[in-house]
Model the fold of this input.
Amino acid sequence: MPSTRIYGIAQEYLYVDLSEHHAARIPYDSHLFMRYIGGMGLGMYFLRRHLPPNIHPLSPRNVIVYAAGPLAGTFYPGTSRLDILTRSPLHGLLATSNVGASFAARLKYANLDLIILTGKAPTPVYIYLDENIVEFRSAEDIWGRGSFDSIRLMIDDGPRKDVSVCAIGPAGENRVFSASVTFDYYHSASRGGIGAVMGSKNLKGIVCGGDRSFPVAFPDEAARLRKTLINKITPWKQNTGAKPDRGVAVAKVFTIKPGVPGHNFSTSVLDTWNETTTFKENGVKLHQSGHACFSCPKGETAARIYLDDQCYYIASVHNSHIFSWGGICGLSDVRHIWMLVRECEDLGIDSISAAGAIGAIISGIGNGIIDCDTDRYNGLAWGAYQPIRTLLQDIAFNRHLGRDVIHGTDRLVERYGPKMKEFVHTIARMEWYPLDPREDIGAASVIGPLVSARVGDNVKSTHIVYEHLPVGVELEGTSDDHTVHERMIGSSDLPEKIKAKVFPTKTLNPGSYHNKEHLVKWIEDKSTIMNAIGQCILLTIDFGDFSEMLRTITGVALNEQELQRIAHRILTLQRRFNMANGLTRWNVDYPDKMYAVRSNRNGVLGKTLNRRMIRSTVQKYYKLRKWG
Amino acid sequence: MQRKRLRFNGNICFGCMQCVLACNYILDKTMGVTAHRTRIHIHLDAENLHAKADLCTKCAMCTRVCPTIAMSFNDNGTLHIDYSLCTNACRVCVDACPSQILILDNGKPIGCTDCLKCVESCEPKALIYA
Done:
């Protein structure tokens, strides 16, 4: 039984054995809160406890954990994030994905902090749960449908409409290793192939309809703090100096600097890039009223994209989509980009991995390595929307050319020989965040995917605000790049000690390798705590505020140093999980091409990655973490 | 003269539910969006992002059906409930409310008191008081 009362958390998790159609609410001890808080931290603890090493990711014994943080369901801005953890089929290491929507809040209102799923249902099912019941409902009628249809039908089938629903699409059902899980239509847990693990368990989705209000420790103080935070937080797009009506608002910094992975990393300067990233000139309108996550009053990435009064997309306008489809696949028409993003969410497939796989196939065809059905993929080339869409669907449905990449883009090398190696851009079999690391994208962005617990992805170990010179951005009456950067860094909560180490002089390029291990560690600690409490990483809330947010809701006072210790504990646990499943220090690296072949800036040769600098920074990072 | 009341623009609401969280908090300082405790309901068609809201329209139906005349609108147009007259459990007003936003809290009917916490918490200004 729970030993002491902690407000704001249910102190219960739902353990589901799909093989037996059995579910039980199990209380957990409050000392786990003190050690891991909740969300990704507690989820990681339970994943490690329930999942022995080297279990095949698609076997019934694999475990999926859905974890909500202690702030989920409260009125603090952007605090209802859900973390999903499992062993990834793509690289066999930790797959952890953080998603918005309202699932975490509904889970809390159902008086649960986590769902732990194991086993394999004999026939396709979906789970309906609220504060009173857990039901296994047949999903045979919806198996095979897209996630949008499935979500709609699961809502229609239930007694209540105020629910949050997640579902896999055909990609998950066909166990495509990059399959995602779609939440409330427009939010997805994309990276690492969590959808494939759900598909392997015959689990189509989960409907969560909790409706219970819960008390908090210090409601009056919480209300005051909420007001302060709302006034204080600056949305990410404003922090980068980009204006919302600029179109790809959050991508503005990138649009001017190099780093575009043009035509599958063959060029970092695309003639069409300006067209791709400029909405207004194309007659495309961006309405700041898209689909927000629960409790996010800023609607941080929410937008609707219109062209000629037709709505093409209504949720997260994130720059990774632009780099994937506009950069790697060379699509210049923004309508096509957002239609593909929407299609990815319906098919339930990771947009970044899918674009990377399609880019590699187009490169292979262009270089005469891959033969393709010219009738089916007529005109498959950079920027050709229709054949790219056909190939995307074929990947999700495991047919034709799509079959070659359902187990990861690296399979192209096994299938077509080593010549394909230079066209496959993965770290530990997963496509990294679609930026060309040979260009000046910042050292933390370069080493992030190599050291991150989510191997191959840098989202938890770097942040645009700290490293990029905001070229052409005006801030407080100045447009001098270094002054703007200094002010952005100055207004951030980066501790003075780290600021002095990482950015000692104004003239030093913010993207240099100088002491970057300190920056990566600090950002990782912060994003780990954000994932543990359930805070969105896009809202620039200070580290110091987390303590107060936690105290007012749970009644437990944890200062900044204690939070950092907890973050380190969670990251060490993740590291141990990955090492037990085959991770070594040097089996996570960029492809050799990135070290040997210079980037191409429209015919002018650029740079290569510096192996010595990367290895040295990674070594320093491990030393800083005391990971030996 | 038309009474001031909450007005909702579903085209600019992005469904963050902060207004409902605020309404729930006002009742007893808990966190939630529990439908039978809040006096504002947002119905979100998430797929197409069409939002509709149930709000107090000040139609005064509750004042008309109240058997003990405990309910009235004051000069400011705000609902006033005289609990010394209320029978505390007859539910007539709750059942009659066309917007279903009158709630019973421990037997007592509670309506929208124009506290405007929902309006304050609405960042896109989809909710206004006019």
In short: Chain A touches chain B at residues 8, 73-75, 102, 105, 109, 148, 151-152, 161-162, 184-186, 211-216, 219-220, 223, 230, 288-299, 302, 304, 314, 553 (CB under 8 Å). Chain A is about 40% helix and 15% strand.
